UniProtKB/TrEMBL annotation:
It comes from Streptomyces noboritoensis. Homotrimer. The keyword Lyase applies. PANTHER family: 2-DEHYDRO-3-DEOXY-6-PHOSPHOGALACTONATE ALDOLASE-RELATED, 2-KETO-3-DEOXY-6-PHOSPHOGLUCONATE ALDOLASE. Gene3D superfamilies: Aldolase class I (3.20.20.70). This is 2-dehydro-3-deoxy-phosphogluconate aldolase. One of its GO terms (molecular function) is (R,S)-4-hydroxy-2-oxoglutarate aldolase activity. It holds the Pfam family Aldolase. InterPro entries: Aldlse_KDPG_KHG, Aldolase_TIM, KDPG/KHG_AS_1, KDPG/KHG_AS_2. Pathway: Carbohydrate acid metabolism; 2-dehydro-3-deoxy-D-gluconate degradation; D-glyceraldehyde 3-phosphate and pyruvate from 2-dehydro-3-deoxy-D-gluconate: step 2/2. Belongs to the KHG/KDPG aldolase family. It catalyses: 2-dehydro-3-deoxy-6-phospho-D-gluconate = D-glyceraldehyde 3-phosphate + pyruvate. Keywords: Carbohydrate metabolism, Lyase, Schiff base.
Length: 204
């Protein structure tokens, strides 16, 4: 894998409280056409969920999100994460992600953060929180002076707003949760998840 941004138009952002749901959920997403799956490190079940998907759903490209420390980088990669996503970055976190050997998307919300990453040779980033930080208008304004930067906007994006983001030249994919309604996950309605994933995959 050379780029997380080119795997699918949408990267599902998954929060799991029960690792037992990881494999059927991942299979539903992959069947719907969304192979890149970001499991956030927000719950105690996250690492077990990543491990389960890595072992049980080889056609999925499972990654870890909400990576905020060097220890989190090490734990995620050890569990089988094939990419890393952070909501923001520091020098130490960036060093750890760079040394991990897997692709990563450090989070940015300002032009200065983008410039600092470009200075270090990093061109692919997460734009977060996308809607709160200026949305498509902000990304459009970055495209002119900073054409080398490519983004995965995440945060507040919906099925309705995703196409506007995906139409931008500096957006490779978007992250979202709308294909994972809490009631569907709680009911283990994987057919519904698959149908919503297919709808998201068809955006490009």
């Amino acid at each position: 894998m050379t780029s997380v941004l080119d795997l699918a138009p949408v990267v599902p952002v998954v929060v799991l409280d029960d690792a037992a749901d990881a494999v059927p959920l991942a299979r539903a997403l992959v069947a719907g056409g969304l192979p890149a799956i970001e499991v956030t490190l927000r719950t105690p079940a996250a690492l077990d969920a990543i491990r389960a998907i890595a072992d049980g759903v080889p056609e999925a490209v499972v990654g870890a999100g909400t990576v905020v420390s060097a220890a989190g980088v090490a734990d995620a990669v050890a569990a089988g994460a094939r990419f890393l996503v952070s909501p923001g970055w520091t020098g130490g976190l960036l060093d750890a992600m760079t040394a991990s050997g897997v692709p990563f998307l450090p989070g940015v919300a300002t032009a200065s953060e983008v410039v600092a990453l470009l200075e270090r040779g990093i061109r692919e980033m997460k734009f977060f929180p996308a809607e709160a930080a200026g949305g498509t208008a902000y990304l459009k304004s970055l495209a002119g002076p900073l054409p080398a930067a490519r983004f995965c906007p995440t945060g507040g994006i919906s099925l309705a707003s995703a196409p506007e983001y995906l139409a931008l030249p500096n957006v490779g994919c978007v992250g979202g949760t709308w294909m994972l309604p809490p009631d569907a996950v709680a009911a283990r309605d994987w057919r519904r998840v698959e149908a919503l994933a297919r709808e998201a995959a068809a955006l490009r």
